[in-house]
UniProtKB/TrEMBL annotation:
The keyword Transferase applies. It is an enzyme of class 2 (transferase). Residues 22-31 have a biased composition (Basic and acidic residues). The lineage of its organism: Bacteria, Pseudomonadati, Pseudomonadota, Gammaproteobacteria, Lysobacterales. It comes from Luteibacter yeojuensis. Coiled coil: none annotated. Keywords: Acyltransferase, Transferase. This is Homoserine O-succinyltransferase. SUPFAM superfamilies: alpha/beta-Hydrolases. One of its GO terms (molecular function) is homoserine O-succinyltransferase activity.
């Protein structure tokens, strides 16, 4: 694909009404860089076009921020977007403070981006980020903040490129997938493959997303939101949870394609990093209601990490999606973890 030119933007005084105010001295690059690395399942080195966002205070330390498989590079609001997927936590004055750091984020790579290899790995995403860090002249990032799949890539980055980061902050992600979670994702991928084979791709992708939503959210939330009885509609009973799931499926189909879903879902289940290989100081964040990444896995990760590690446990009814929903609880945890990385004394 042709390279997207990087744009350097001096952000205006006024941002979108719902977003925090961003001063004019914050800068933004949103573009594409071509990088080279050897994919795990490809053998020979390849070149890949990495779509990235790099924004914040000029000349400030860089913090990588990556989310789940459906997240993109637009982690925060900016001139070309009214909102980012985590802009409550990534903004001027927020926990990840754009007035004191620069945030770097990429769109996840899929096999067609890296020469059509059979599968893409978390190590490939980490290699692309490491090469991008070099291309941008960053050298070493202050921290890697990763959530869900982003946490897995953060671990791969720390294991394979230890000289390129100072610390890790990992939310709802571990060194390996839990087998039950792999089973659930395997069924989702089977649904999508059946849809591709039968010509009912959109329906299949929507149904896979509906199933995924039952694993992302917690039992307590579903019990609270969908306790009402069924309603007779269109010749059958409809349960309250169905409208929610169908809406989530439709929205996903509008912004995601099946091949991308299959590749990134599989990449989660291929992930396997030895914690002992990681020496960077690490802050782990987990949620007891998270059934995809059980706390027991994070406790094992904490015990086995080669460097110092702390585990913050936050109660939430939102399950795995708590890293998106619990911004008030997460803000002080992220702020303190980054302050520790910067060497700021605790109050």
């Amino acid at each position: 694909m042709p390279a997207e030119p990087a744009t350097v933007i001096s952000l205006p005084q006024a941002a979108a009404p719902a977003a925090p105010r961003r001063p004019s001295d914050l800068t933004e690059q949103r573009g594409t860089r071509r990088v080279a690395f050897a994919p795990k399942y490809g053998g020979e080195p390849v070149e890949a076009d990495v779509r990235y966002l790099w924004c914040g205070a000029p000349d400030a330390p860089t913090v990588i921020v990556q989310g789940g498989i459906s997240a993109d590079r637009d982690v925060c609001s900016g001139r070309e977007r009214a909102a980012g997927w985590w802009d409550t936590l990534v903004a001027e004055g927020a926990a990840i403070d754009l007035s004191t750091c620069r945030v770097l984020s990429i769109d996840w790579l899929v096999p067609e981006d890296i020469g059509g290899v059979a599968s893409v790995s978390s190590e490939d995403q980490a290699a692309a980020l490491a090469a991008l860090v070099d291309e941008l002249g960053i050298g070493r990032v202050q921290a890697f903040v990763g959530s869900s799949y982003g946490a897995m890539v953060g671990l791969a980055f720390a294991a394979r490129h230890p000289g390129k980061l100072k610390s890790l902050v990992l939310l709802a992600g571990a060194h390996r997938p839990h087998p039950l979670s792999t089973a659930q994702r395997s069924v989702q991928r089977g649904i999508v493959r059946l849809g591709l084979a039968s010509g009912r791709t959109g329906e299949a992708l929507a149904l896979a997303r509906q199933l995924a939503m039952t694993t992302y959210r917690g039992s307590e939330e579903f019990s609270r939101r969908f306790a009402a009885g069924p309603e007779w509609r269109d010749g059958r009973f409809h349960f309250p949870v169905e409208d929610y799931l169908e809406h989530a499926g439709r929205r996903f189909v509008e912004r995601f394609d099946p091949e991308r879903f299959l590749a990134l879902s599989e990449s989660i289940d291929l992930h396997d990093v030895a914690p002992e290989d990681i020496s960077a100081p690490t802050t782990l964040v987990g949620f007891p209601s998270d059934r995809l990444v059980p706390l027991a896995d994070l406790c094992e990760l904490q015990r086995r990490l080669g460097g110092t590690a702390t585990l913050e446990v936050l109660d939430s009814p939102y399950g795995h999606d708590a890293f998106l929903k619990e911004t008030v609880q997460l803000a002080p945890v992220l702020r303190q973890a980054l302050n520790d990385c910067y060497g700021v004394p605790k109050p």
